[in-house]
Amino acid sequence: MMTRNLIRVMILSLVSMGCVFHGSYTYAAEHDTEKKLDRIIADCAYQDFLRASDGMNLVLHYQDQDLDAFGLLGEAKQMYEKLVVEFGFNRPSYPDPDRTIDIFVTNKKYLSRWIRQGVLSMSSERSHAPCFNAIEEADGYQMAIFLPENIKKTLANDPVSLRGTLIHELAHAVLFQYNKNVQGWLEHDYQAGAVAQSFGKDWYAEGLARFFEIRVGSDAYFYKTEQISVLGGIKTTKRDGVNYLMDHPGRPFWQAGYDYALFWEYLYEQYGMEKIEELSWRFSRIRPRDVVANAPEILSDVFEKDFSILIHDFAKSCASKNFDPDVADGLNDLAWDIMTSKSLVSSLIPWEQSFICVKDKRLLKSKSFNIDVAEGLMMSTKILYDDGTMENHFVQLDRDQPAWRFQLRGDLIDRVREIRFVMTNLDEGNTVRVSTHPRIDE
Fold first, then answer.
1. CB neighbours of 212 closer than 8 A, spacing ≥ 6?
2. What tens digit of pLDDT does each residue of 154-212 get?
3. I want to staple 202 with a disulfide (CB 3.0 to 4.6 A). Which of 125, 236, 257, 269 is the partner?
4. What domains lie within the chain, and their CATH numbers?
5. Helix (H, G, I), strand (E, B), or coil: what is residue 319?
6. Going by C-beta distance under 8 Å and a sequence separation of 6 or more, which residues neighbour residue 174?
7. What does R_g of the chain's alpha carbons equal in angstroms?
8. DSSP 188-225
9. C-beta separation of 97 from 11 below 8 A
10. What is the pLDDT of the chain when averaged over all its residues?
11. Which of the pair, 381 or 16, is modelled with greater confidence?
C-alpha cells in the first residue's frame, strides 16, 4: 500500500503541472506515521486539490461525497488570492514546508477528539468550527482550517457569508506565515486563563481577520448585534463584532478582540492596505511577552504618527462614527458614560479610554469643568449647540499641566445642548485616576 505522504507528493506534483482533480479522491493512510496531520486526515474519506497562482496548494478533506468540493475550493482560492494578490500579503517568512493549506469539513465531535489526543493545540472550549490551527510537526508547521458540516448549505445559499468565513480563516494562515510568533501570542492567551487578554493577541489576529470579512462584502459577523443572556439576566452584545466596541468603548487595545476590526477599518481608511501589510510584517519581531510593550512603538513607526495620537484619533472616530458610510450605517451609536452628578471619577488602565457625555440641563449651566489627573492624559472636548454648530478643544496633560479647567463662554452657556469628553490614558505603566466635575456656583 502506498503511504499517505507518497500519495500526497504524487498528487501535488500533478497539481504543480496544472492538473486539477475533479470529483473526489479516496486515500488510505498508514498508521505508523508520527505526523499529527495524518491522524486527522485518516478520519476523512475524500480529498480534492486546487493550486493558487503563487504556488500554494489548497487541499480539501471531507466525508460527505455530495459536498460541492470544487465549488468550495474555488471560493477558497478566490479568497486566498484576494489576500496575497489584491491586498498584497505576499511575503511569507515561515512557510508551511509543503506549501499547503489543509481545509477540513468536519464537526465538533472530531475536533474534540483531536484535541483530546493532543493532535490539535487549542483549548477544548474552542472545539468548534470554523477555526484555524498551526499544527507543529517535526519538520515545521502545517496550516489547517476546520469548517463545519453545514458549510455545504452556506455554499449553496449564502456565498457572500461563505467568502467572509473563508477569508477570515485564510487570513490566519497567511498571517501565521508572516509571523509565526503570533502562535505564541495565542498560547500565552489561553494559558493565562481568566486574564487571557493580558498578552494582547486577539486585537490583531482576530480583529484583522474580521476586518477582511467586510472588505469582501460580508457583514454576517462583522457587526454581530444580536444579544445573549449573561449572569443576572443582564444582556450584552456578543464580543465578536464591532458593535461590542461601540456598546463597551474604551478598553485598551491589548484587551480587545474581534471587535477591534473597527480599528483596522480605521487604519485602512486613513492609511491604506499597504501600511497594514507592512505592520503585519513588522510584528514578526515581537516576542509573545513583549506584545503590549512593543506594539505601540511599531505602530508609531509604520504609520508615522505617535501611537497615543493614533489611538486617540481612532477613539474620536468611534465617538462620531466617522467611517466610510457603508461601514458607519451598521454601527450602533457609541455608549457614552452619562454624567448625572456633580463629579465623575474614572480609573483608566494603560491605554484605556473614557467617553463622558454631559446632557443634564443643570450641569450644562456650569461656567466651567475641572479635569484633574495625575499626569499622562490626552483629552478632546466637543461642545454641541442647539443650532447644530459645534466647537472642539484638545489638551494633553502631563507633569507640567496635571489638571485642566475647561471654561465655557458665558454668552453661549444657554445654547449648549451637549458636551462630550474623550480621554485616553497615555501612561504605559500606570493606572490614572481622572476626576471630572463642573463648577456650577461660580
1. 83, 87, 167, 168, 171
2. 999 999 999 999 999 999 999 888 777 666 565 544 444 434 445 567 888 899 999 99
3. 257
4. 1-178 (3.40.30), 185-335 (no CATH), 338-439 (2.60.120.10)
5. helix
6. 80, 83, 84, 89, 92
7. 25
8. HHHHTGGGGGGG--HHHHHHHHHHHHHHTT--TTTS--
9. no
10. 81
11. 381
Cell of residue 262, nine digits: 473597527
- Cα-based angle 46, 169, 209 (whole degrees, multiple of 5): 170
Return d(Cα 11, Cα 211) in angstroms, integer.
35
In the chain, the amino acid numbered 157 is: N
| Closest of 195, 190, 178 to residue 286, by C-alpha | 178
DSSP 73: H
Q: What is the pLDDT of residues 311-355, one digit of tens each?
A: 999 999 999 999 999 999 999 999 998 887 777 777 888 889 999
Contact 374/402 with Cβ under 8 angstroms? yes
200 φ, ψ to 5°?
70, 55
Supply the DSSP symbol for 85: I
CA distances from 279 to 88, 93, 204, 264, 352 (A): 12, 14, 10, 11, 22
More confident site: 246 or 91: 246
Amino acid at 423: M
Say how far residue 253 (Cα) sits from the centre of its chain: 10
Provide the whole-model pTM.
0.85
Asked if the peptide bond before residue 252 counts as cis, ω within 30 degrees of 0, the response is no
